[in-house]
User: Which sequence fits this backbone?
């Protein structure tokens, strides 16, 4: 008998992003070997003390690193990939239900 897969979305899911990224994924290795905490102190003078909180500077650097490592040169393509790639989300620290940064955040950050 031929089976047919029919998608029926659930109202609630019991899933953990940590479990969805393989233990041997290259980004897990980067996360364990490369500490970027120094970026907070290095970038502090470039931020205002007033206004809305910015996107985390470590997240911005990691986004650019993802583009370089995976050969994604378009900011729009990169942010699109970040939205759908579970390992990218995990590496940046964004859970499944969180909005990821828009491409314009990178455009404004990279402007001289």
Assistant:
């Amino acid at each position: 008998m031929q089976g047919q897969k029919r998608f029926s979305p659930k109202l609630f899911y019991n899933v953990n992003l940590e479990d969805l990224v393989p233990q041997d994924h290259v980004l897990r290795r980067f996360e364990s070997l490369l500490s970027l905490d120094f970026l907070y102190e290095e970038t502090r003078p470039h931020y205002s003390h007033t206004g809305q909180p910015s996107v985390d500077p470590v997240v911005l650097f990691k986004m650019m690193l993802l583009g370089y490592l995976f050969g994604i040169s378009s900011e729009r393509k990169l942010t699109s990939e970040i939205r759908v790639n579970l390992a990218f989300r995990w590496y940046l620290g964004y859970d499944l239900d969180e909005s990821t940064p828009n491409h314009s955040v990178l455009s404004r950050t990279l402007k001289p």
Notes: Residues 22-43+55-110 form one domain.
